[in-house]
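User: Second chain of the day. Same drill as before.
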Amino acid sequence: MTNSLRPHGSQRTPLPQEAVPALPTPRDEEAGQQTTAPPAPSAPTGQKPKQRDAFFDNAKYLAIVLVAMGHAWEPLTDTSRTAEALYMTVYTFHMPAFIMISGYFSRSFDMRPDRLRRLITGVAVPYLVFEIAYTLFKRWADDDPTYDFSLLDPWYLTWFLIALFVWRLTTPIWKLVRWPIPLSLAIATLASVSPDIGDDLDLQRVLQFLPFFVIGLSMKPEHFQLMRRRSVRMASVPVFACALLFAYWAAPRMNSAWFYHRDSVQELAAPPWTGPVMTLALFGCSVVLVSCFLAWVPRRHMWFTVLGAGTLYGYLLHGFLAKGSRFWGWYDNEWLHKPLGEIAVTIAAGTVITALCTPPVQRAFRFVMEPKMAWAFRKDPAEQARGRTTTGA
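Assistant: Same format as last time:
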């Protein structure tokens, strides 16, 4: 998802024996509100609203844990081939999984005023706040008081927020075109050989990760059901084993920057023909490993299910520790580069990201992640009319 050294996110057929997850607004899905739908006016009094689907919250939590572990492993990859192999394997699928789920829950997005407002308050505002906060943190922690503010050049983890903002705005287009996935792949491939795109808004990442968001938009509940078949779960074990073995072989031979999707092939000093080849090859590997990952995500409510609603909190907040560990030289300790040290780093990363996804942290930072900001928007006459109609009913 990111390099630690530079800037781097109509009702369908329900799944068998599971309720259809309520389609959340952008702020609900990313920032962690409970996506419950009020009962219809004709519903009996006391009817329970639809609750969050435990499967997706479990998947989001497990994916964000892998994101944090990947960031913790990055400084270890220079001295440990095993850490590099794990790093490359996880980077193949952890952000694609997160992006596909984000796309799946963006299917209901349109240009309706209330959804646009929530896109602004739940994605754009946190982007602005954390872009400023990260810049101030770098100035202080890295002793670099002249580091410039730049809202057009996302720093570190904020690239995902600007990417999500752009992807969601383009959702109506992908719902309109006939072949959205091939078209998004073509765009990603062209981006990989277009160095003139530059770093503004991290457009290379926005375009190269785009196919995973479009896949999510195109998915139906039955697709997730297929991935959770017993045969898929059994097949995923040797697939992951082969992926790890291949990554161990490729670790000293391959530039891990390919997995960040932030540079064109020219910037990676590779032959032009490798751009389309690597884009399509990595896309195929990512889709396979995402399927294997989702096949093993628990369907039932687990102890960590509630943390799935706070993954964006953990994602943005753990960046201060991830960057601080580099600025303050925590990895200079040689013990951390030994097997026991690598295990300790892995456990610490999982523990920290888990704590940052908890409800108390969500409540403490909700004013930043989910600001209401009613004062900033005009009242929409259509919404007022809908409200009067609902009240009358």
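The chain has a mean pLDDT of 85.

User: Great, on to the next one.
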